[in-house]
Request: fold
Amino acid sequence: MEERLNYLLQQFTAGALSEVEKQELLTLAESEATMLTDEIVKMITAEENFADTAIDDQKWVPVLDKILAVDKPVKAPRKLLLNTFKWAAAAVVLIAFSFTAYISLSKKKEHVFVTDVAPGGNKAILTLADGKKISLSDAANGDLIEQAGISISKTANGQLVYHIEKSAGAIDDTKVNTISTPNGGEWEIRLPDGSVVWLNAASSLQYPLNIATSKQRRVELTGEAYFEVAKDKAHPFIVKTVKQELEVLGTHFNINSYIDENVTRTTLLEGSVRISDLNSSDTQLLKPGEQSVLSDKGIVVKKVNTDEAIAWKNGYFMFDNEKQESILRKIARWYNVEIEYADPAAKEVMYYGTVSRFEKISKVLRKFEQTGEVRFDIKGNKVIVYKE
Reply:
């Protein structure tokens, strides 16, 4: 496999790839991202003279650009996946943390962590209208409970599903359920109106049991969630957070509204939404591919890479020139760890890249160490950050 990857990469850089070989390389980029990274590093180190102190990283920039610019025929869309090539490209971007760092790393011993932390997974607590709590990660698959003519079940893939019974009468609009994820947890829920919500770590969603029949489908969010709202023009879907209110008719969007973040970010993938600042009269209408950033100064709308906003939902950490401090807050939530900075200057280091959320924390941290900018120690449930 390694020899084949090396051959395909050599053909690629020489501009001699056939169409069949191009598709083979793209397929391997999706399934063998780590091996692909290793082979590209080998190509670089084989050509660079390590006796020289200056390493020409820039000669490889066109190669990266060329790889990332390749277009791939779009397959039939699947409900829970993005365009497959976008993630093939994202996998290749793993090497873009820093070529200099990879080359430098080959000359020194890899940092060995004494302890490690496993990634998060499907963990959530469902709090019913009567106050009863159900640990969804511990509950068996199948029907969990029936309340007010609505049955709640847990599927084999960990999704929480609501189903309104035909015999159900009017549902009390004061009855609400709350689903909460801890640090290191995530969950997918299908609401009674058919809308699907993915909750990120350390988040909660509160929703009324009569959401499918009420004039306004109102939910409250803390933390981060990705929504695929069931279309219903007669019943607007409204998401309230601490600082904003969002109104939609049917669309796909992501909201990041953690208490420990200075701003609330709403990213629109499909449809249209109206953002309202709860502390002012400011409102903005978002178009697909746009993100609103709500701060104390109001709402700012900008064009963004939507893949980055929902990378967490697809199993990745993805950052585009993002500060270490911001990245480590995400890692802290997902791995349920505390972050301590031995040197505050480490907070300001910027990164660009993509890393799987399902690796142990040591493997993720090594990616940052390979830049030569920072170093980490893991002590129990605490990650200590040093500036190199």
